[in-house]
Amino acid sequence: MINNAALTDLIVKMADDELIQGHRNSEWTGLGPMMEEDIAFSSMAQDKIGHAWALYRILHENLEGEDPDRFAFVRPESAFKCSHLVEMPNGAYDFSLIRHFLFDHAETVRYESLRDSSFEPFQQLSKKLKGELKYHTLHANAFIMQLSRANEESYARMQTALNETIALAAGIFEPAAVYEDLLIDEKVYPGEKELYHRWLDRIYPILVKASLNLPDMDSITPEFGGRKGFHTTHLGPLLKEMGEVFNLDTEASW
Amino acid sequence: MMMSPVISQEDIYRTLEQVMDPEIPVLSVIDLGMITDVEVTGPNSAHIKMVPTFAACPAISYIKDNIRTVVENALGIAVTVEIDKQVHWESNRMTAAAKEKLKNFGIAPPQTVEGEMQPEIMLNTPCPHCGSEHTYLRSPFGSTLCRAIHYCKSCGQVFEQFKPLE
């Protein structure tokens, strides 16, 4: 029997990443640099919030968790376990695009690893999301490639955005405070360290094709803390805005 | 004396052909391959299992309710509808007839996925308007989660496609 607290910890951090990244993506709605990009970020927002919902539902149905809507909107900031990467404001399109590229490949290796999970609901979910995530990484790869090859300015902006985002992205792979070995031993998932290496193997060939230089990963310090409930100053305002309507009447049936 | 009608599985399947997708009104839930099981549970009741196409499909509760009310009203029985967690929807579940209807509606149908889906499958998608394969993928995301946007270089039209999904 897998430890429920360990499973809950893993699911919450995955789901919170999806929810917050989904919210950030949705902020591009109406503001995308061109119509197709506006639609793409809005669609991916919908997908990611859907993934968060599926995970909150697993908590609710399998692990005696709270109702998904309440869990998403009523928790205090310190109960969120998202990474610092997803909390960051969208900034310029170059940052949002690089974040999308780094996050969606991380998401892909994570869900792929869950195909073999000893926790059965993960197997179902990973099958469902696999095909959808393919479209997200297809989109990210295409734009990374196009902008890196377009002209000097766009190339320089992509490289700068990559340099500035990589430590945040490495922060996705913050190991669980107490449950990491247990989850690995129980074959729930292969662990953050393993996923981190799979992720690097996945993004490296695409960066090479785009002639972008992956910073020396041994010299960067991953931005950890999010998984333990320590957040940047950007999360608070985001949660307030995100829960604004729900919190008008938390007992209402939406 | 009135005999109470005995509802068969076939009656239910036939009725489900009338339940259309709200976003693509020429396709029924049968065409889309969304129905995974129909069980007659008693003289006046049935249980239907279905799967959503995309995980975050916003129309799913609407479709679920629609299935229930259409079958209940048409056959006068009580129906429960459940999301089937054991079956995974893939675009290969769509029937050949459905693909033809989709094309005639102006949306390119999904290509058949063989094995692991490669992004190249999206290249040179035949244009539903002129049939040309001189097309390119403009965005893997369209007006709904299940659609992509392509451009036809032969007739100069932008068109949508129901995306292949494994």
TrEMBL record, chain A:
Domain of life: Bacteria
Single GO BP term: phenylacetate catabolic process
Pfam families per record: PaaA_PaaC (PF05138)
A single GO cellular-component term on record: cytosol
NCBIfam families noted in UniProt: PA_CoA_Oxy3 (TIGR02158)
Official protein name in the record: Phenylacetate-CoA oxygenase subunit PaaI
Organism: Chitinophaga flava
From TrEMBL, chain B:
Domain annotation MIP18 family-like: ranges: 10-82
Alphabetized Gene3D superfamilies for the sequence: Fe-S cluster assembly (FSCA) (3.30.300.130)
Pfam families referenced in this protein's UniProt entry, alphabetically: FeS_assembly_P, Zn_ribbon_PaaD
Protein's UniProt name: Phenylacetate-CoA oxygenase subunit PaaJ
Superkingdom assignment: Bacteria
Domain PaaD zinc beta ribbon: 124-163
Species name: Chitinophaga flava
